[in-house]
Each structure stands twice: as C-alpha cells, then as structure tokens.
Amino acid sequence: MSFPFPPGTDEDTPFFVISVAAQLSGLHAQTLRSYDRMGLVSPGRTSGGGRRYSMRDIVLLREVQRLSQEEGVNLAGVKRIIELENEVGALRARVHQLTEELASAMAAAEQAAASVHASYRRDLVPVRHETALVVWRPGPKR
Prior knowledge:
Layout: H1 18-25, H2 29-38, E1 44-45, E2 51-52, H3 55-69, H4 75-119
Antiparallel strand pairs: 1-2
Helix pairs in contact: 1-3
C-alpha cells in the first residue's frame, strides 16, 4: 500500500486511530485490541492512553491475518514467527554494521601499512661480504 506521509513522518509514525486501523487492515477493532493484549502488534499510545497505529502496524496486522487465515498458523505461532522475523532483521542490520566496520578497519590498516612503508629510508646500506672457510675434523674417539 502506497501512502503519502505528512512531512516529518514515516511508516513508523503512529497516527491512525483504532477505527481507521481496523478499516485499513480489514479487521474488527476488538480484534486489534486482542492482538495488542497478546503482544502481536504494539501500537503507540497517546498521553490519554488511546492507541495510535502506524503504517507498519497496519502491514503487520495484515500479515497476522494472512498467517492465521490462509496459512492456518495459530496466534502463538504467529507471535513466534513475528519475533523470529524481527530477530532476523536485527541480525541482518548487525551483520551490515559489522561488515562496514570491518571494511573501515581494513582500509585504516592498509593506510597505516602504506604510511609505514613510505617512511622506510631508501638509502643504500653497506654490507660487508666476508667469507671464511672452516674445516671440521672429528676429534679422537673415546
């Protein structure tokens, strides 16, 4: 669903009242309240305690409905699926962050190595080349 967000808002900004969220998700308002109590969807709250749903919440409500109706997953299973998907998303974000940190560290190490190599003196250093011949003779046997 494409939705033009007001300036300064995005898909995570809670601004739909429960009746609008119910209509957008195709569910009954009481179902939304139940899902909130179960922890499936956690809408924002106003200072008075009223629920405010974001566009991301609406999408999640539709996914809960799809999983339970079309896939036959019970609500406990739906909750676990949502938790696992959130965990996977967090892990992907962490891997991305660590990959960027690693690339930055490697670039810094390469720059430091290049700096060290650039600081080497390029003067010729005299080396004495002497050779000596040593002959080994075994001593008397004991």
